[in-house]
Amino acid sequence: MTMPGFPEGVDGFTLAQQMQAQAHRFGAETKYQQVLSVDLNAKPKKVKTAKDEYFAKALILATGAKPRSLGLPGEADLVGKGVGYCAACDGMFYRGKTVVVVGGGNTAAGDALLLSRVAEKVILVHRRDTLRATKLYHKALLDAPNVQILWNSAVTALHADQRLTGVTVKDLQTGQQQDIDCQGLFVSIGRLPNSSLAQGQLELDADGYITTDSTTQTAIEGVFAVGDVRTTPLRQVVTAVADGALAVHHAESFLSQHNN
């Protein structure tokens, strides 16, 4: 991960550790417990974990989202070893290499275009005969000299020798399969929000993301949602951090008005 404060780059785990240490210096406390349920309408709001119960006047939900996977054997073991779900995050590792992108929506098209500026070759694999992405992407992809699109196709197997070495792609119309050598595979078929705790209590959009106003306030006063779990046009670290700053500011304001 490249950041202005880390000229040589920093991995996500190290960055998270340093951010947590900074928060602790200012008095924050971390509890490593699995949250089983929340009662957002209770006064005070109630959080039940596998060990304890916590009560608070204000609550910020930052449960994130997880990428949809292909569900192929070995996929989970190859994450970070050739298999990725965020081209904007990891694309630079594949400079001059061959990468496969799976998907046909805006995310997949955008990932393929981004990677085309870095990788030697980009192969976009899509289950249908036309992209679901907006027309804006179509011409750009077709004009990119190093982008190949495999229509009506699906990745059916992964090949690896400690790291990803290739994939098997099946033509869904003919049944014919081919092995493709590649060093990277980006799965861009959508994400699943971790919003189950809020179901039945907060308003969710059609895809299951928590809806908020511009301040990250949800439909319940004193409950905020930040980062990838909320409805937002862009999901990156920088937008999640901005959400957190907004939520803390407005949570403090809420608490000052409800200090009894």
Features:
260 residues, alpha/beta, three-stranded antiparallel sheet, 5 helices, 15 strands, elongated
Q: How much helix is in the residues? A: 10-25%
Instruction: Give the overall pLDDT as a whole number.
Output: 92
Number of strands: 15
How many helices? The count is 5
Main sheet, how many strands, which sense, barrel? 5 strands, parallel
Whole-angstrom Rg = 21 Å
Helix-strand sequence: HEEEEEEHEHEHEEEEEEEH
The N- and C-terminal alpha carbons lie at a distance of: 44 Å
| Apparent shape | elongated
By secondary-structure content and strand pairing, the structural class works out as alpha/beta
Percentage of residues in strands? 25-35%
Low-confidence stretches: none
| Major sheet: arrangement of strands | 6-13-7-8-9
What does the model show?
The chain is of the alpha/beta class. The protein is built from 5 helices and 15 strands. It has helices at 12-25, 87-90, 106-116, 135-143, 237-257, and strands at 35-39, 45-49, 53-56, 59-61, 65-67, 83-84, 98-102, 121-125, 147-150, 153-161, 163-171, 177-181, 184-187, 191-193, 223-225. Strands 6-13-7-8-9 form a 5-stranded parallel β-sheet. α4 (135-143) links the parallel β8 (121-125) and β9 (147-150). α3 runs parallel beside α4. It starts with 11 loop residues before the first helix and ends with a helix. The mean pLDDT is 92.
